[in-house]
Amino acid sequence: MDYLVLLYYCYTPIENPEQFREEHHRLCLSLNLLGRIIVASEGLNGTVSGRRADCEQYMRLVKADPRFATLEFKVEEAPAHTFQKLHVRVKPEIVHVGLPHIKPYERTGIHLSPTEFRDLKDQDDVVVLDVRSDYEHNLGRFKNAITLDIENFREFPEKVQELEQFKDKKVLTYCTGGIKCEKASAFLLEQGFENVYQLHGGIIKYGLEAGGEDFEGKCYVFDGRVAVDVNSVNPSVISQCHHCHTPSDRMVNCANPHCNAHIPLCEACGQQLAGACSTTCQEHPDKRPYDGTGTYPKTAIITTPSRGCSRTAPRCGKNFYNQLSSCARAKDLVRQERIGHTVVVIIYQGLLLLLRMTCFLRGCYSIGANPNCSFCRTIAPSFSKNPPYAHRRIGADPQQGWQHLSPEPATRPPFRNHYHGWRPGARTHG
User: Fold this and answer.
1) What CA–CA distance (Å, rounded) separates 331 from 327?
2) Which of 166-185 are b and which e, b meaning 16 or more Cβ less than 10 Å from the residue's Cβ?
3) Pairing verdict, β 140-142 and 215-217
4) Could you give the CA distance from residue 217 to residue 194 in angstroms, rounded to a whole number?
């Protein structure tokens, strides 16, 4: 296969996440990678897809950074891109759990290789703990694993009290790629658990190196594949169709956008309900068209990531920045245009100030206000395509220019009036 999928994370201090995000985003654009990357002061987390050569170059460049020297990539082959867009974002945590004070690079559970995990998981004094969300472990999980009823990882700290009975046992945590286990095991240690371990590299690495033995069902992944097979030793299906309850590991989103439930749904029920999870959702007026896949990706604004944003959007305008909020490259372009515009305005205002000072020193008090001044007759009119200031408020005809101005006075005016042009009393030049 020509494409690779890279799954990775690394807990390491990043001093300036915003600057790192900008640099990393440009790197991904230059290599035509698509995916989701999260940057935080505590580290880096991402899943990207791209051509084999581009992914290999990306891995070399990332690991060349001393901060990510220990980072390990989980590499899988794919027939094409598994993402439709590229997102590189700065967030408080690289996996949101609401525990920013926990630093896994300072203290976390003991890492177990896939083979060590396989040999240890069935011992009597061991508990295998799945720290993923319910829709993930309902699709696939290790045999006899303890699961938690949580919709997202943020709820994990609240569920730890349910594990008090296992404090005297060895707790083996696992997740998709290992990143959640880093914080989950560190939090368990903080709560008084003494023997805490974690599957290094997660389910994905376990499938690659240990054949996925005793993992029942499929592994849920956060890209276009949705679910992948990891068990090549003793595979099985444990999830059931939401509608008819027959064994099915086909995950879909409900076609009703107001429901959008993420459920297993067999192909027959998918066709019968037109991608909906129930007849109620099927009859909803806002139901999305069902194309047989059960996925409804958002329309991507980025059409050519290596070139930035789609040019179907307006080149400038106050709404351009918001319209392309998902395209950091577009933001860079808008920022550059705004900087360029600001520079032009500054230069223009500087020239205008210079002309005003010249008129002031020559006693004209306003650009183009004195018809008898050679400077006002030549330089000032050529500086602006608009008629001179003199005819704006004293009744001069813009089409006829200077001839309607007041005649030359003899004395300097007692005050300066910028817009009223030539006033009685100004000196003459030229």
Assistant:
1) 7
2) beebbbbbbbbbbbbbbbbb
3) antiparallel
4) 31
Q: DSSP string covering 18-80, please?
A: HHHHHHHHHHHHHTT-EEEEEEETTEEEEEEEEEHHHHHHHHHHHHHSGGGTT---EEEEESS
pLDDT, one tens digit per residue, over 232-282 is 999 999 999 999 999 999 999 999 999 988 899 999 999 999 999 999 999
Distance CA 71, CA 103 (A): 16
**Non-local CB neighbours of 106 within 8 Å, separated by 6+ positions:** none
Nearest of 83, 70, 26 to residue 44 by alpha carbon: 70
Set 10, 28, 175, 269: catalytic member:
175
| 266 catalytically annotated | no
Q: How confident is the model at residue 379 (pLDDT cuts 50, 70, 90)?
A: low
Q: Would you say 155 and 163 are in contact if contact means Cβ atoms under 8 Å apart?
A: no
For 427, the token pair is 């000196």
291-312 confidence digits (pLDDT tens): 888 888 765 444 343 344 433 3
Least confident of 19-23, 159-163, 276-280, 414-418: 414-418
